[in-house]
Amino acid sequence: MHVDMPTEMGCSLYQGNQPTLDSSAVSILRNAGALIFGKTTTPELTWLNSGPKTTNPHDVNCTPGGSSTGSAAAVADFQVPLSIGTQTGGSLMRPASYTGIFTMKPTYNAISLECQKICSIFLDTLGFFARSVEDLQLLADVFSLKDAHPHKTIPLKETRIAFMQTPMWDQAGPGTITAMNTAFTILHNRGIKVDQVPFPPEYTDSKILTQNFNTICKTEAQSSFLKEYNMDKSKLHPKSALSSKPHPTLHKDTTKLSTTSPVSEKSSLLPSSLNTTQFSPPASQKKHLSVCTISRKVSRSCL
Predict the structure, then answer these.
(1) Whether this model's pTM surpasses 0.70
(2) What DSSP character marks residue 201?
(3) By CB neighbour count within 10 A (0-12 exposed, 13-18 middle, 19+ buried), where does 184 fall?
(4) Are residues 142 and 181 both part of a single domain?
(5) Per the domain annotation, does 99 fall within a domain?
């Protein structure tokens, strides 16, 4: 959310909405010397699979992905060098993959979501888009993100890499399968140890994983979007309205998570930390921070 720019969240209920307060993330960026260039598009309340008319810079007939749609497209199109977005279930990784740029999804709750519209308080995470890993590191430094363990330089031939076929591997297209197999072969031929690591049994059923995610997300979206539903449900997309409508049985479903998908004591349904490699940006970047960033959402408390 930007105090000097409209924040509409892809929703007609907020047409012309003008915030009076910066979000925590934007405030931190401003204080670091960032130049806020503008706002970008997102599907309605970041919830819908279909959304704005934003196209993929590499092919206007293709989508840039969502829900951080415009944030990724603007970076991929060289309109700005950096942007910010959020992820509930793939809204950083998917647009970055579709548009061929870099993204970083930090550890859950590593960056404050104060004054941003929340979809799922249990899952939403703020992250970054850039065209290089070094630029991602620049933003990580601004938000004081640090690895839990000191960085160590490991010789390439002492590196071990896990090759994991996810529970959705049977849905992968031929291009994805070929790319993964090619990478496996290249690494193996260079003497790098690559282990095929299976997923734990409790995470091998993609239907149960999807069911658990949907239960958490829909339950929390019901609370997050209830205000909009009560404001004027006729102005919401039917899918958003359905998600926001009070549903007495929805909360009961969350008690079934542990029975439909057994989880070990050491496991967690919360997003795990992202282990990022520490990079040292040039000294000039540390001294003179001048970045362009984009924020897409506004918190309920700031309207």
Answers:
(1) yes
(2) G
(3) middle
(4) no
(5) yes
CA pair distance 60, 66, nearest whole angstrom: 15
Fill in the amino acid letter for 116: Q
Q: What is the pLDDT of residues 132-172, one digit of tens each?
A: 999 999 999 999 998 888 888 888 888 889 988 888 888 89
CB 276 within 8 A of CB 147: yes
| Gyration radius of the chain over CA positions | 20
Contact 237, 44 (CB under 8 A): yes
Q: Give the separation between CA 211 and CA 158, rounded to whole angstroms.
A: 39
Residue type (1 letter), 262: P
H/E element holding 83?
A: strand 82-87
Asked whether the CA dihedral 136, 140, 145, 150 is positive or negative, the reply is positive
Number of independent structural domains in the chain: 2
Q: Tokens 């984009």, residue?
A: 294
Relative to beta strand 102-104, strand 125-130 is antiparallel
Q: Do 36 and 26 contact (CB within 8 A), yes or no? A: yes
165, part of any domain: yes
Structure tokens belonging to residue 106 = 């930090």
| 10-66 tens-digit pLDDT | 999 999 998 889 999 999 999 999 999 998 999 888 887 666 789 999 999 999 999
The answer to whether residue 25 is domain-embedded is yes
DSSP single-letter state for residue 12: G
